């Protein structure tokens, strides 16, 4: 099961009609990194999630002292 934040990024990528390869190229990541993130096989760095959100035109916010994060469109 993937984290809701990853699910939001995946939905945003699909809504933008971008492939995993498109997102990876624009975010400076490998396609395999995006694939592993979306499948729950990788624990991402905050900077990776932030860059993916930026490419997708989303704002990435974290809450201090919690594990909660959210993406806003």
- Structural class, please? mainly alpha
Averaged pLDDT, please?
87
Percent strand equals: 5-15%
CATH architecture field: Orthogonal Bundle
Instruction: Domain count, please report it.
Output: 1
Count every beta strand, where a strand is a DSSP E run of 2 or more residues: 2
Residue runs with pLDDT of under 50 for 5 or more positions = none
Distance between the termini: 23 Å
CATH fold-level label = 434 Repressor (Amino-terminal Domain)
Shape: globular
List keywords for this structure.
73 residues; mainly alpha; 4 helices; globular; 11% strand; 2 strands; 434 Repressor (Amino-terminal Domain); two-stranded antiparallel ribbon; single chain
Report what the structure shows:
With 73 residues, the protein is mostly helical. It has a single domain, classed as 434 Repressor (Amino-terminal Domain) (Orthogonal Bundle). Helices cover 53% and strands 11% of the residues. It has helices at 4-15, 20-27, 31-39, 46-55, and strands spanning 59-62, 69-72. A two-stranded antiparallel sheet has the order 1-2. Helix 2 (20-27) crosses helix 3 (31-39) and helix 2 (20-27) crosses helix 4 (46-55). It is globular and about 30 Å long.
């Amino acid at each position: 099961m993937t984290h809701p934040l990853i699910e939001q990024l995946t939905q945003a990528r699909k809504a933008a009609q971008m492939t995993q390869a498109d997102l990876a190229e624009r975010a400076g990541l490998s396609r395999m990194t995006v694939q592993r993130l979306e499948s729950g096989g990788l624990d991402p760095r905050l900077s990776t999630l932030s860059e993916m959100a930026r490419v997708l035109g989303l704002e990435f916010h974290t809450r201090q002292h919690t594990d909660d994060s959210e993406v806003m469109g």
